[in-house]
């Protein structure tokens, strides 16, 4: 079958994966916005959230390997999302307190943060490998019926629909949070000018920790969604983490809407590219596009500032 | 006394910026702080607002030491700081910038927004525009308006006339006087000494981190050293050129920024 026949199916698949990249990318971009710090341990926040959500959902599954389906499955997804978000939030909180805050207090140079991030990342990966085993852990498909409806001939499963809907809801929610709430006002103020934000009465330390936690909640919930389609493993964080980081850079790091756009675009490009060439070329194509776009627009598609588009 | 600094010393690493500064601002008065670049004027303001911590000495507000008060709590205690270079939030609209001034207390935000827009009608015309796209004068109005949103008792103003055209400078000084008539005390750092001394009640002159003169505004205007160093008296009787870069009104002997002619 030709590309055009497959176009809509590839688009649906790409958008689903891309929406997950976007959700994870927000964590990178938010933290970069307020601290000008690339939190390379964010991928492990995603991984820990993924395990948290997955274990919570598995604990509630009946032991016979069946899934409740329908409303029962929706409830399971809700539990998994909640647990994933909670684990992600907790992991991000701990990370900030243990790996970054002590450095900030000592006004450490940039390189120290990077080393600290890598250390925290290795620690989390190996701890997870020890505790959760080095095998993939998965979840049975929570929804029996495959195709719910066809979109221009593309099959959209309940699972795909649920994942995409939840991811988009999180993206919209985060966008509203940043653009329209007092917390968002504080986040944007710190991102644009931290000293002046202090003069306005913004508690910068609180904004920083909340920003980490918000990014962690999203990554954790996103981790559960990811585990629903794929699986979870101790080493799962790296590749989606790098791709989400790519998405954030693609859209313009520090820019919330940019991260969303970057994530969706990256998902689509991967999906199309994987079909046009070979599935194994997916990552090559994804990162090739990144390099190409950055050569033309070094500060990403929407530019580099948090709040510019929000 | 509203604000009291007692023997305040501040250092940036090994470099001492303030070497024992003492000054006072009473309720409702305008006090100006004069001095050349690098004399420690901005450092003094940043120390008052808690962005810098004194190595020795003390800053008191209403008689209470500020040494344990975090900088972000100062605005809630009635101190607003309009920083050097205006520092509006570039990607926020004029409205959002003004609302940032009411970040700690939203209750009166709507009424205060109207009040500020009445003071600066120009800002009303630009209300949806991003702060970074405004002209220098408009940004200064925005920075001052933003500081007023918290209903301060004391406003710290750092070089409000810097880089602005004379007509705008006049407007800015009128507004400062207007703010003060409503009972707000102002600590004004300025290179434009004449204008500052005209609206101030008292003034201090800083030189390399020390207060070298303290007097009423009239007294300072009459002081030979001040006339020579800050009022450009030796440059004839013409009023100081406010459009020129600030360095021209500064004495040539100070700091590392001295132009290499």
From TrEMBL, chain A:
<keyword id="KW-1133">Transmembrane helix</keyword>
<dbReference type="InterPro" id="IPR052157">
    <property type="entry name" value="BCAA_transport_permease"/>
</dbReference>
<keyword id="KW-0029">Amino-acid transport</keyword>
<dbReference type="InterPro" id="IPR001851">
    <property type="entry name" value="ABC_transp_permease"/>
</dbReference>
<feature type="transmembrane region" description="Helical">
    <location>
        <begin position="107"/>
        <end position="128"/>
    </location>
</feature>
<feature type="transmembrane region" description="Helical">
    <location>
        <begin position="73"/>
        <end position="95"/>
    </location>
</feature>
<dbReference type="GO" id="GO:0042941">
    <property type="term" value="P:D-alanine transmembrane transport"/>
</dbReference>
<dbReference type="GO" id="GO:0015808">
    <property type="term" value="P:L-alanine transport"/>
</dbReference>
<keyword id="KW-0472">Membrane</keyword>
<dbReference type="GO" id="GO:0015190">
    <property type="term" value="F:L-leucine transmembrane transporter activity"/>
</dbReference>
<feature type="transmembrane region" description="Helical">
    <location>
        <begin position="207"/>
        <end position="228"/>
    </location>
</feature>
<dbReference type="GO" id="GO:0005304">
    <property type="term" value="F:L-valine transmembrane transporter activity"/>
</dbReference>
<dbReference type="GO" id="GO:0015192">
    <property type="term" value="F:L-phenylalanine transmembrane transporter activity"/>
</dbReference>
<keyword id="KW-0813">Transport</keyword>
<feature type="transmembrane region" description="Helical">
    <location>
        <begin position="284"/>
        <end position="303"/>
    </location>
</feature>
<feature type="transmembrane region" description="Helical">
    <location>
        <begin position="148"/>
        <end position="174"/>
    </location>
</feature>
<keyword id="KW-1003">Cell membrane</keyword>
<feature type="transmembrane region" description="Helical">
    <location>
        <begin position="45"/>
        <end position="61"/>
    </location>
</feature>
<dbReference type="Pfam" id="PF02653">
    <property type="entry name" value="BPD_transp_2"/>
</dbReference>
<feature type="transmembrane region" description="Helical">
    <location>
        <begin position="20"/>
        <end position="38"/>
    </location>
</feature>
<dbReference type="GO" id="GO:1903806">
    <property type="term" value="P:L-isoleucine import across plasma membrane"/>
</dbReference>
<dbReference type="GO" id="GO:0015188">
    <property type="term" value="F:L-isoleucine transmembrane transporter activity"/>
</dbReference>
TrEMBL record, chain B:
<dbReference type="InterPro" id="IPR030660">
    <property type="entry name" value="ABC_branched_ATPase_LivF/BraG"/>
</dbReference>
<dbReference type="Pfam" id="PF00005">
    <property type="entry name" value="ABC_tran"/>
</dbReference>
<protein>
    <submittedName>
        <fullName>Leucine/isoleucine/valine transporter subunit ATP-binding component of ABC superfamily</fullName>
    </submittedName>
</protein>
<keyword id="KW-0813">Transport</keyword>
<keyword id="KW-0067">ATP-binding</keyword>
<dbReference type="InterPro" id="IPR052156">
    <property type="entry name" value="BCAA_Transport_ATP-bd_LivF"/>
</dbReference>
<dbReference type="GO" id="GO:0005524">
    <property type="term" value="F:ATP binding"/>
</dbReference>
<feature type="domain" description="ABC transporter">
    <location>
        <begin position="3"/>
        <end position="233"/>
    </location>
</feature>
<comment type="similarity">
    <text>Belongs to the ABC transporter superfamily.</text>
</comment>
<dbReference type="InterPro" id="IPR003439">
    <property type="entry name" value="ABC_transporter-like_ATP-bd"/>
</dbReference>
<feature type="region of interest" description="Disordered">
    <location>
        <begin position="232"/>
        <end position="261"/>
    </location>
</feature>
<dbReference type="InterPro" id="IPR027417">
    <property type="entry name" value="P-loop_NTPase"/>
</dbReference>
<dbReference type="GO" id="GO:0015658">
    <property type="term" value="F:branched-chain amino acid transmembrane transporter activity"/>
</dbReference>
<dbReference type="InterPro" id="IPR003593">
    <property type="entry name" value="AAA+_ATPase"/>
</dbReference>
<feature type="compositionally biased region" description="Low complexity">
    <location>
        <begin position="236"/>
        <end position="261"/>
    </location>
</feature>
<dbReference type="InterPro" id="IPR017871">
    <property type="entry name" value="ABC_transporter-like_CS"/>
</dbReference>
<dbReference type="GO" id="GO:0016887">
    <property type="term" value="F:ATP hydrolysis activity"/>
</dbReference>
<dbReference type="GO" id="GO:0015807">
    <property type="term" value="P:L-amino acid transport"/>
</dbReference>
<keyword id="KW-0547">Nucleotide-binding</keyword>
<keyword id="KW-0029">Amino-acid transport</keyword>
């Amino acid at each position: 079958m030709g590309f055009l026949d497959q176009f809509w199916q590839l688009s649906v698949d790409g958008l689903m994966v891309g929406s997950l990249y976007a959700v994870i990318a927000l964590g990178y971009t938010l933290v970069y916005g307020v601290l000008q710090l690339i939190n390379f341990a964010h991928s492990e926040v995603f991984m820990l959230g993924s395990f948290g959500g997955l274990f919570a959902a598995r604990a509630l599954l009946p032991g016979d390997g069946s899934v409740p389906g329908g409303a029962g499955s929706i409830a399971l997804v809700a539990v998994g999302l909640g647990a994933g978000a909670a684990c992600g939030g907790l992991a991000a909180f701990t990370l900030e307190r243990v790996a970054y805050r002590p450095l900030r207090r000592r006004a450490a140079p940039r390189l120290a943060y990077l080393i600290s991030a890598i250390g925290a990342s290795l620690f989390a990966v190996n701890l997870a490998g020890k505790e959760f085993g080095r095998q993939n852990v998965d979840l049975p498909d929570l929804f029996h019926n495959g195709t719910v409806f066809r979109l221009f001939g593309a099959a959209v499963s309940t699972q795909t629909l649920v994942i995409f809907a939840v991811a988009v809801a999180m993206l919209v929610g985060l966008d509203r949070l940043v653009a329209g709430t007092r917390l968002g006002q504080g986040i944007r103020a710190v991102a644009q000018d931290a000293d002046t934000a202090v003069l306005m009465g913004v508690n910068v330390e609180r904004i920083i920790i909340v920003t980490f936690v918000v990014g962690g909640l999203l990554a954790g919930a996103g981790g559960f969604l990811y585990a629903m389609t794929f699986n979870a493993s101790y080493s799962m964080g790296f590749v989606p983490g790098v791709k989400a980081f790519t998405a954030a850079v693609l859209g313009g790091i520090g820019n919330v809407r940019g991260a969303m756009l970057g994530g969706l675009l990256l998902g689509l490009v991967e999906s199309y590219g994987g079909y046009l060439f070979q599935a194994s070329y997916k990552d090559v194509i994804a990162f090739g596009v990144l390099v190409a776009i950055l050569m033309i627009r070094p500060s990403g598609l929407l530019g580099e500032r948090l709040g510019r588009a929000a | 006394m509203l604000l009291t600094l007692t023997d305040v010393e501040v250092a940036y690493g090994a470099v001492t910026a303030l070497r024992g500064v003492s000054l006072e601002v009473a309720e409702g008065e305008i006090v100006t702080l004069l001095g050349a670049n690098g004399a420690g004027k901005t450092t003094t303001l940043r120390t008052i607002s808690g962005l810098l911590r004194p190595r020795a000495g003390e800053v008191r507000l209403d008689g209470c030491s500020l040494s344990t008060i975090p900088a972000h709590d100062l605005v809630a205690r009635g101190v607003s700081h309009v920083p050097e270079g205006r520092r509006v939030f570039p990607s926020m609209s004029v409205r959002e910038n003004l609302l940032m001034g009411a970040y700690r207390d939203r209750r009166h935000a709507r009424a205060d927004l109207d009040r500020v827009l009445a003071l600066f009608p120009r800002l009303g015309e630009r209300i949806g525009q991003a702060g970074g796209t405004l002209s220098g004068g408009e940004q200064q109005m925005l920075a001052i308006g933003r500081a007023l949103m918290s209903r301060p008792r004391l406003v710290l103003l750092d070089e409000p006339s810097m880089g602005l055209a004379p007509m705008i400078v006049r407007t800015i000084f009128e507004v400062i006087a207007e703010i003060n008539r409503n009972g707000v005390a102002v600590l004004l750092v300025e290179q434009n000494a004449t204008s500052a001394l005209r609206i101030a009640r008292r003034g201090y002159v800083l030189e390399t981190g020390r207060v070298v003169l303290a007097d009423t505004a009239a007294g300072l205007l009459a002081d030979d050293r001040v006339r020579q160093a800050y009022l450009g008296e030796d440059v004839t009787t013409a009023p100081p050129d406010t459009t020129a870069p600030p360095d021209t009104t500064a004495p040539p002997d100070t700091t590392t920024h001295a132009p290499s002619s």
